[in-house]
Design goal:
173 residues, mainly alpha
Length: 173
């Protein structure tokens, strides 16, 4: 019984203990998966013409942002950032994007609601960082109000976005 008896012949199948795959768990779902499934079961797609309050407020804020940007620029209000003069092209592009977002949100377009949520999230994060440097009580109150209002709007838009039917991609033939 030398070394040759210890080595396994390459043509032999490996021992059963090595090839046995672990048994799959018996359909065990975590509590969070069960909660998610229960919430998904309660979601009903938005009815034709149904616009939750979060959609109305989001569309209004996007339209107000775009229109106010155009009106202030046309009125000659100059907001200097970092010593630069405002230019017409970026102002018009921003206003056009915000107005397109407002129209898309109003018509419940998935991409528009998702884009608005991204803008709201960025705004909330910016004001949270501004809260760190708030020098006055008024500055802190304004930052907290934007954080609370934006956070609530973001939270409500998540539910609305889950009820909007995501467009199906075209099939490839």
């Amino acid at each position: 019984m030398g070394q040759r008896s210890r080595k396994r012949d390459r043509t032999e199948p490996p021992p059963a203990a090595v090839t046995a795959e672990p048994e799959p768990r018996a359909a065990h779902r975590s509590r969070s998966e069960e909660r998610n499934a229960a919430v998904r079961a309660t979601l009903v797609p938005l009815a034709a013409g149904e616009r939750p309050w979060a959609i109305k407020i989001g569309a209004f804020l996007a339209a107000a942002s775009g229109l106010s940007q155009l009106v202030l620029f046309a009125a000659g209000v100059k907001l200097k950032l970092a010593g630069t003069d405002p230019k017409a092209a970026p102002t018009i592009v921003f206003a056009a994007v915000m107005l397109a977002c407002a129209v898309g949100v109003w018509y419940l377009r998935y991409w528009a609601v998702l884009g608005l949520m991204a803008l709201v999230g960025i705004t909330v994060a910016t004001f949270a960082l501004a809260l760190i440097k708030a020098a006055t009580v008024l500055g802190a109150v304004i930052a907290l109000a934007v954080i609370a209002g934006g956070g609530l709007l973001f939270y409500k838009l998540v539910r609305v976005l889950s009820r909007i039917q995501m467009p199906t991609p075209p099939t490839r033939s």
